[in-house]
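ingest -> fold -> write
write: protein_1
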Amino acid sequence: MQLLNEPTKPRILVADDDPVIRHLVCSIVKSEGYEVVVAEDGRQALRILQTDTNFKGAIFDMMMPHIQGIDVIRHMQTEKRFMKIPVMMITSEQDFHLAGKTFAAGAVLFLQKPFTHAQLKIMLHTLVSQKN
């Protein structure tokens, strides 16, 4: 018997301010059998996390208005209830040091834009296979 608020599929939090990229990422995540919870920026992602931590993983864009993706990750590392959620960072920034900064902040994966469907699917499966 399923409870009313219990999700039927593993859930992924996706935060990206670009509607085209957000739609693409959400479509791929859904096609792989996950439920998607969408945030349009980092501030909205943090608001969602304040009331819901039942996520198998999260995919954040690096550069978003209000709160950048890396700052969302840093905040997640300050609270035990968020630490169990593995995070993949995606970015179109061409700074080679960003991957290192992202991993230092607590992300487990880093994906450079533009990416292919196949690349995102592989990274998604790696993300959700993380111990949490």
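write: protein_2
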Amino acid sequence: MVVRGSPCATDASVDLVLRIARERDIPAVAALIPLSVRALQAADYSTAQMDAALGPVFGVDRELIRDGTYFVVERSGELVGCGGWSSRRSLFGGDAGRAAGESALLDPAHDSARIRAFYVHPDWARHGIGRQIMIACERAISQARFRSIELVATLAGERLYAAFSFTAVERYGIPLASDLRLPVVRMTKTL
């Protein structure tokens, strides 16, 4: 899928390509995550919170990639965004933060699909990349016959999900190392 966008005034005709992530994308995703977190989450979280969350909360989830439910957006072969959805129990976190039982599959008739792990390169923030990934996720979730969606949003991400009619149902803090907590928002949507 090619997404036409206008990410900057100097290049209004740039093509962004949205596709399913592959195993070979893992190094690029791993490099994008801290770059995105440190720049786009800095207004909402302290450096200590971001550092403690990188890995267990903000990290590569290879299971999403293996399941074929993770998308990447490229510009001229360079990764500028990623995000996906899951039919597994885990609500957030990378490989390093997965607890036992979180990999269990969900039942579309009774459970909510999960929106997971959205990251955008800071130079490409607010240019529709998250929106394009979200549209692809909702389409795939609907095709998988889920009737609802659940996610855990960062404070910065809450605005994107609210624009897609997600409702905040709980605010809490994810426990991190050094007695830190990462404030987040659990959000839901019925399809």
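write: annotation protein_2
Confidence is low (pLDDT under 50) at residues 1-13.
Residues 173 and 183 are 4 Å apart (CA to CA).
pipeline exit 0
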